[in-house]
Amino acid sequence: MAEAAAAAGHDEADIVLKTADQAGPEDLLGADGYIFCAPENLAAISGLMKEFFDRSYYPVLGKIEGRPYAQMVCAGSDGANAARQTARIATGWRLKEVQPPLILCTHSQTSEAILAEKTIPEGQLEKCREIGAVMAAGLALGVF
After folding, report:
1. DSSP state of 74
2. Which residues contact 114 (CB under 8 A, 6 or more apart)?
3. What is the CATH number of the domain that holds 45?
4. Which of 16, 27, 92, 112 sits CB 3.0–4.6 Å from 23 for a disulfide?
């Protein structure tokens, strides 16, 4: 999902794609906008994403206000709580939501399905590309 969004925006903006365990406050400070992408685990954002927010929240508080963000959640059944968690953090940072959260549901309800590698269908990847393209174009045009 994140790779699809990043690839779609490369023509319009300088894109930096990092995993949550590799990203930190300096990345947030250096960016003009953000697309947060995370899996839902047990009705919450993944532990790695939560840890990224924990490490980054206070060091950037008051320093990134007004910047645009969007988010994508890969969920097994619902994803709404994971999206809510990210939105609450973004609200605390005073970020500007530029699109509603994209929640893609894999309908994984068994241990086997939950643990299996996921393949996002092309039609859903196109939605990820749209988010990347819109974010990049909005930044390039100064809309956000």
Report:
1. E
2. 76, 108
3. 3.40.50.360
4. 27
Q: Per the domain annotation, does 92 fall within a domain? A: yes
As a whole number of Å, the end-to-end CA separation of the chain is: 22
Domain holding 36, by residue range, is 2-139
The position carrying tokens 């893609």 is 104
Q: What is the pLDDT along the chain (144 residues), one digit of tens a residue?
A: 999 999 999 888 899 999 999 999 999 999 999 999 999 988 899 999 999 999 999 999 999 999 999 999 999 889 999 999 999 999 999 999 999 999 999 888 888 877 888 889 999 999 999 999 999 999 999 999
User: What pTM was computed for the model?
Assistant: 0.92
Beta-strand runs (E) in 2-79: 34-41, 44-45, 68-75
Counting the structural domains of the chain, the total is 1
Q: Is residue 82 part of a domain?
A: yes
**Residue 16 located in a structural domain:** yes
